[in-house]
Design goal:
- By secondary structure, this protein is of the alpha/beta class.
- Helix content is 27%, strand content 12%.
- The protein is built from 9 helices and 6 strands; from the N terminus they run αβαβαβααβαβαβαα.
- Strands 2-1-3-4-6-5 form a 6-stranded parallel sheet, sandwiched between helices.
- The longest helix has 13 residues.
- The C terminus is likely disordered.
- Bound molecules: thiamine diphosphate, iron/sulfur cluster (SF4) and magnesium ion.
- Thiamine diphosphate (TPP) binds next to helix 4.
- The site of iron/sulfur cluster has 12 residues, from loops.
């Protein structure tokens, strides 16, 4: 007779490390870390099958704080490393943690190709609309006329929408959530996890040191609605949502050709077509 017993179920604690967290007090990255550490044990995947890959940035310190395999790579190149891991070991759950600078500036080209190749990587884009680690330079998602150390007279570039880039790259699952919307964020992560293909999740994240309030309206209690996530993407200054805004992004949209659309609360696992 077999005496084998099942191992105890994984918990959030199993995914925490003893590393000193180096993020600033109040940074939105803590909330994202907490959500991921809560969701991973619920996925029914062995801890040793997770790999967290990052580039460079505050957000890219993520692998240090996840008790999984991990790789803190070089700036903008997490997609290349992650694609290599997933291609050679498809049974592994490969998650990329990246920032708006890491994924959309230096790593923009790699992000596009990672998404179109659709090998099954899950991407978490921490979008704080700033370069945090290097102490506050404007990024591709910073608003027009952004005054930073690198643009003292205001930036002349207009931001682009990471969702548009992902959809244009034929990503098969795209979604957006907010660091402080914990329930919504966890739900979104679960659906990204079960998606058969690569998943791109933009997370609106507050950098309270160099870009505090950049996402003021979606995260403020007065306007905390899912539609607020879409309203705020078109704004150039913090403030309550404007009823006249006709912007129609929702929290989850995908390529019409390879649809993985979901609306929070109505999600069913998406299929690759
Ligand atoms: C090749 C190279 N170029 C530039 C840098 C400097 N650098 C480090 S992190 C970073 C930007 C980080 O911004 P983001 O990806 O938005 O991450 P955050 O710190 O905001 O989480 C830059 C430009 C670098 N480390 N390597
Ligand atoms: S600089 Fe900004 S993004 Fe980086 S740890 Fe501090 S608050 Fe977070
Ligand atoms: Mg950033």
């Amino acid at each position: 007779m077999s005496t084998a017993t099942l191992p105890p179920p994984l918990t959030k604690k199993d995914f925490q490390t003893d590393q000193e967290v180096r993020w600033c007090p109040g940074c939105g990255d803590y909330a994202i870390l907490s959500a991921v550490q809560s969701v991973f044990p619920e996925l029914g995947i062995k801890r040793e099958n997770f790999v967290v890959v990052s580039g460079i940035g505050c957000s890219s310190r993520f692998p240090y704080y996840m008790n999984t395999f991990g790789f803190h790579t070089i700036h903008g190149r997490a997609p290349a490393v992650a694609t290599g891991i997933k291609a050679i070991r498809p049974e592994l759950e490969v998650w990329v943690a990246t920032g708006d600078g890491d994924a959309l500036s230096i790593g923009g080209n790699h992000t596009i190709h990672m998404l179109r190749r659709n090998v099954g990587i899950k991407v978490l884009l921490f979008n704080n609309k700033i370069y945090g680690l290097t102490k506050g330079q404007y990024s591709p998602t910073s608003e027009f006329n952004k005054k930073t150390k690198s643009t003292p007279f205001g930036s002349v570039d207009r931001p682009f929408n990471p969702m548009s880039l992902a959809i244009g790259s034929e990503a098969t699952f795209v979604a957006r959530s907010v660091d402080v919307f914990q329930a919504h964020l966890k739900e979104t992560l679960k659906h990204a996890a079960v998606h058969k293909g690569s998943a791109f999740v933009e997370i609106l994240q507050n950098c309270n040191i160099f870009n505090d309030g950049a996402w003021f309206c979606p995260s403020s209690s007065a306007t905390a609605s899912r539609r607020a996530i879409s309203w705020c993407t078109t704004r150039t200054t913090p403030g309550p949502p404007t009823p006249s805004c006709s912007h129609t992004w929702s929290t989850g949209q995908a390529s019409p050709r390879r649809s993985a659309y979901f609306a929070p609360g109505t999600i069913s696992p998406a299929t690759k077509t």
